[in-house]
């Protein structure tokens, strides 16, 4: 081989390696261990507060979160057994879906309780091969009852069972769903509604749990309108629950409505609105109160455009989505928060971006948190009692419904505009592209809590961080070898 | 290796055609589905299952554009190191750069629809560049092994 030819070949091979090398390195670097603890994931972000002596970020030391349970000696007031099956099932409207059921149906049964009652749910896994859990979305349960596989428990294998116990919080609308392979199990049916009734429930109280099965929107598992009898002058509460991966809009034709609760928390001083659309983000809830017109005409609550809750008798007209959107930032009247967000002990930033790279050995365009790809994401570390402020910024090009487990946070401002209405408490926040929210909460529920996107496919692609209390540790492990895969 | 280089460039040009066909097919299917009473919103868009067949066009467009075409463009550049096509590396690099621009515009279009407009235009630039890259191979007669030429490239 002539020398020039050899040199040329060497240059070509070197150039190839210069291109392929970095890709290979990024690929191998992104691969996850066969098993790992959430405690060892990413890097600690103390938000300007003290690191704490028993930090536990290295996976050692601290109080075991399995001790964070509801009083074991207290008898249950509401006892429910839910049996999960992986099967082909028929929706109420007759359509067949290949997915998951609880007690033979999807959605699973609505669990109803009164504030302060102890709810005990026995979850039995009949045949779901990947294992299951139940997460109580919006209920600030003790950490060990949170139902996140690999973080607060092991996934419940086929033939096994797990008991969840928690005290029903203040009246409100909540839901429950699997937090094991959730992007698959929730989309295909493993969820249901949870309602904590007020002491004096309205005359007509309707749960409208909307879900898209195989591209078809349903309300309570039925792809036809939900018809509810309601006489003239009757006060109706419609509990909208969005169990999907994307935000949906609802609007009312035929009467004004008030948004009386958001994410299970009462709105203070809600005023009637008309010709106004309301956005309910993925995982979020909104309770609408409607007083039926005295003249006896029916009312249509449109959910996502194609489907409605029809109140009263008759066929109220469909209307196009109103251009005006209700802004919760200025809705209702102010009230005391119960803490001072100005005196924050920790200040965090949760900035969502997007870039090409590898996550768990897979190439693609992935979501980043503060510029980092999963699992190299921040571990937001707090101490019990801290007042926490967080800036949530989305520069990723797509909407993200952000869900913090175990806590309700309050919106302080959006894009620099201060909140002027009722305290906007939430557990699921619609953070649109280009938006920036300032939020605050009190760290009053110790443990290890997921803080993730409730577009569950995004969470499965790594848009998940955790809030960790100093001095606590979890014995559970994630990864292929453990069978725990929360997202 | 010249053949590999040439075929890769042709395949990239063909892939641009496939991309245009796929997205037009999906939009047509969406129109027909909405016309039949279907409601398309974010939840349906994020749903695992397809509400109408033509959604497959969006899925193929995503896999092709997000993964397959960038890999083909990288392979084209790598093959150009070995192919001894005069100016081949330059054109391989150009195709890769246009693919990078195309991807950036495509993803940016999710939040900034104007980028989608440019995405459509850049597609034709990429198609032309890939086609020209393929067609210019062999047009200039390359002597068997002139050391002087090899050293120049």
Q: Your description of this structure?
A:
The complex is a heterodimer of chains A (487) and B (153). Chain A has 487 residues and is mainly β. Chain A is built from three helices and 34 strands. Chain A is globular. Chain B contains six helices and no strands. In chain B, helix 3 (56-83) runs antiparallel to helix 4 and helix 4 (88-108) runs antiparallel to helix 5 (113-135). The radius of gyration of chain B is 19 Å and the shape is elongated.
Mean of the pLDDT scores of chain B?
A: 89
Radius of gyration of chain B: 19 Å
Q: Quaternary arrangement of the chains shown? A: heterodimer
| Secondary structural class of chain A | mainly beta
Helix fraction of chain B by DSSP (H/I, runs of at least 4): over 70%
Biggest interface, chains and residues, is: A-B, 47 and 32 residues
What class do helices, strands and sheet pairing of chain B give?
mainly alpha
Give the strand tally of chain B: 0
Q: Helix tally of chain A? A: 3
Radius of gyration of chain A: 24 Å
Specify the helix fraction band of chain A. under 10%
Largest pleated sheet of chain B = none
The shape of chain A is globular
Low-confidence stretches of chain A: none
Strand content of chain A: 35-45%
Name the helix and strand elements of chain B from N-terminus to C-terminus, one letter apiece: HHHHHH
Number of helices of chain B: 6
Mean pLDDT of chain A: 95
The number of E-state strands of chain A comes to 34
């Amino acid at each position: 081989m002539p020398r020039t030819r050899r040199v040329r070949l060497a240059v070509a091979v070197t150039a190839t390696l210069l291109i392929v090398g970095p890709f290979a390195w990024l690929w191998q670097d992104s691969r996850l261990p066969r098993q790992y603890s959430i405690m060892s994931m990413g890097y600690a972000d103390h938000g300007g507060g003290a690191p704490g002596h028993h930090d536990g970020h290295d996976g050692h030391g601290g109080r075991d979160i399995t001790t964070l349970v509801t009083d074991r000696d207290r008898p249950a007031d509401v006892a429910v057994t839910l049996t999960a099956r992986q099967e082909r099932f028929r929706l109420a409207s007759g359509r067949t879906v290949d997915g998951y059921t609880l007690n033979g149906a999807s959605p699973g049964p609505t669990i109803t309780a009164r504030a302060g009652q102890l709810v005990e749910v026995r979850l039995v896994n009949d045949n779901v091969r990947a294992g299951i859990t139940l997460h109580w979305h919006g209920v600030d349960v003790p950490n060990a009852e949170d139902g996140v596989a690999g973080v607060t428990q092991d996934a419940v294998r086929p033939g096994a069972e797990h008991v969840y116990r928690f005290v029903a919080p203040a009246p409100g609308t909540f839901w429950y769903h699997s937090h094991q392979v959730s992007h698959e199990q929730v989309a295909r049916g493993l969820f249901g509604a949870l309602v904590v009734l007020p002491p004096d429930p309205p005359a007509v109280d309707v749960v409208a749990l909307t879900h898209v099965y195989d591209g078809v929107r349903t309300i309570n598992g039925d792809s036809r309108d939900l018809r509810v009898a309601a006489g003239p002058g009757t006060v109706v509460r419609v509990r909208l629950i969005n169990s999907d991966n994307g935000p949906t809009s609802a609007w009312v034709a035929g009467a004004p409505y008030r948004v009386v609760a958001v994410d299970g928390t009462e709105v203070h001083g809600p005023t009637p609105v008309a010709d106004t659309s309301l956005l309910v983000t993925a995982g979020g809830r909104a309770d609408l109160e409607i007083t039926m017109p005295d003249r006896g005409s029916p009312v249509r609550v449109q959910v996502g455009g194609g489907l409605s809750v029809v109140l009263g008798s008759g066929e109220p007209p469909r209307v196009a989505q109103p251009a005006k959107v209700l802004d919760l930032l200025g809705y209702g009247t102010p009230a005391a928060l119960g803490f001072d967000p100005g005196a924050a002990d920790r200040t965090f930033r949760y900035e969502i971006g997007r870039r090409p790279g590898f996550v768990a050995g897979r190439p693609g365009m992935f979501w980043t948190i503060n510029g980092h790809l999963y699992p190299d994401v921040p571990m937001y570390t707090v101490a019990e009692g801290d007042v926490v402020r967080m800036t949530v910024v989305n520069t990723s090009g797509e909407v993200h419904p952000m869900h913090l487990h175990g806590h309700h946070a309050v919106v302080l401002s959006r894009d620099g505009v201060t909140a002027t209405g009722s305290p906007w408490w939430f557990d699921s926040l619609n953070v649109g592209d280009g938006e920036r929210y300032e939020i605050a909460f009190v760290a009053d529920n110790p443990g290890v809590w997921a803080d993730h996107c409730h577009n569950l496919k995004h969470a499965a692609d790594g848009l998940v961080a955790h809030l960790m209390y100093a001095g606590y540790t979890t014995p559970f492990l994630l990864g292929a070898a453990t069978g725990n895969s929360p997202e | 290796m010249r053949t590999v280089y040439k075929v890769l460039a042709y395949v990239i040009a063909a892939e641009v055609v496939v991309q245009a066909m796929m997205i037009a097919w999906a939009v047509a299917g969406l129109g027909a589905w909405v016309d039949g009473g279907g409601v398309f919103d974010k939840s349906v868009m994020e749903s695992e299952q397809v509400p109408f067949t033509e959604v497959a066009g969006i899925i193929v467009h995503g896999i092709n554009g997000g993964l397959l075409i960038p890999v083909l463009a990288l392979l084209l550049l790598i093959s150009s190191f070995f192919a001894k096509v005069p100016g081949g590396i330059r054109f391989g690099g150009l195709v890769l750069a246009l693919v990078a621009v195309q991807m950036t515009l495509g993803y940016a279009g999710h939040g900034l629809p104007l980028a989608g407009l440019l995405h459509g235009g850049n597609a034709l630039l990429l198609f032309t560049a890939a086609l020209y890259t393929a067609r210019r191979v062999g047009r200039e007669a390359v002597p068997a092994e002139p050391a002087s030429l090899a050293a120049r490239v």
